[in-house]
Amino acid sequence: MRITKRNLILLILALVICLGAGYWAFSVYRVNKSIDQLRSDDWQVREQATENLTNLGKLAVEPLITALKSNDANIRWRAARALGKTKDSRAIEPLALALKDEDKRVRYRAVAALEEIGNSRVIELLVSALKDNDVDVRERIARALGNIGKPAVELLISTLKNEDDEQNRMKLAEAWSEIYIITHENYIKEQFISMLKCENNNYYDIRMDLVEMSGEIYRRTGDLNIIEALDNILSSAKDWDIRSNALESLKQYRTEDERIMRLISHRNWDECLKIGKPAIKPLIDALNSSDKEIRQNVYSILVKITGKDFGMDLYKWRMWYEQNKERSK
Questions:
Q1: 139-198, pLDDT tens digit by residue?
Q2: CA 301 to CA 39: how far, in whole Å?
Q3: How far apart are CA 213 and CA 165, in angstroms?
Q4: CB burial class (10 A; 0-12, 13-18, 19+) of residue 186?
Q5: What is the maximum alpha-carbon separation in the chain?
Q6: H-type helices in the chain, by residue range?
Q7: For 53, how many CA atoms within 13 A lie in the half-sphere containing its CB?
Q8: Do the beta carbons of residue 109 and residue 95 sit within 8 Å?
Q9: What global pTM score does this model have?
Q10: Which residue, 67, 203, 244, 259, is most buried by CB atoms nearer than 10 A?
Q11: Gyration radius of the chain over CA positions
């Protein structure tokens, strides 16, 4: 039998269709099998199933959305995790519902998933979810908003300014403080410092919350901008309660290191150099300052005191200090 060109083309098309249908059917089988494996008692099987679903991409989205409604919380949080990896916008609204799940693990994973998808709708959902009662979930949301950056923080600040409920306002302020600690964006830090110094009575409660949290921010970052702002409040704030809160924040960490930090804050470089080795740790912390002039002077003094030169690399300076701190006293 002679095969014509037309018949050959039709035969090839039929083979392609059959292969495509076979691949689709096999993929559907893999999706269903992987979702079923999310119930496994073996964590390695569960991890592999999550990875398989991630690799299957968009084909797995609808089954994973269905899995978010499972009665088993272990399946729900793993489904949320896999949905984030697909980065498919169809998952946004189902994940929004997962932010209200009774199990904190599901809410936590929903936050991470939404961060991976990321868009303006996601930012709105995450800021609204900061009212969550679990501190771990709220910290994860703050980290997500900080990673998203300026648009997320702008909405957070706007929401904070319009929040009347005291508990919710405190949660929003805590999130802003956490973002300050983890971020490297000057804009975010500048907005925070600006609010600390703001004398507008409309933002009195917000300012009180932020001042109260500033001591912890300073402890975790060594950021001199916080010390400068609190000093400014002590010397110029009109309200006694605000000044009292600023004093308490400073008192928590008023040590010899604090005295040196004040010298750095006031750019008293000669005095820092005279102190010598005891100034090394606060000087290293000051390399984290957003002020370029402070960083450059601190770096110069560190080189003179230690005889070492790690440039502006804060990590290397801290590693060196940890290995040599007994000799640096």
A1: 999 999 998 888 999 999 999 999 989 999 999 999 999 998 887 778 888 899 999 888
A2: 59
A3: 18
A4: exposed
A5: 102
A6: 5-37, 43-56, 61-67, 73-86, 92-98, 104-117, 120-128, 135-148, 150-161, 166-182, 186-197, 204-221, 224-236, 240-251, 256-265, 269-275, 280-286, 292-306, 314-324
A7: 32
A8: no
A9: 0.67
A10: 67
A11: 27
**Angle in degrees, 0-180, between the axes of helices 166-182 and 204-221, rounded to the nearest 10:** 30
In the DSSP assignment, the letter for residue 3 is: P
Which residue from 37, 114, 50, 122 is spatially nearest to 79, judged by alpha carbons?
50
Which of 256, 179, 193 minimizes the C-alpha distance to 227? 193
Which residue carries 């110094």 as its tokens? 197
CA–CA gap between residue 96 and residue 94 (Å, rounded) = 5
Q: If we measure between CA atoms, which residue out of 6, 78, 8 comes closest to residue 38?
A: 78
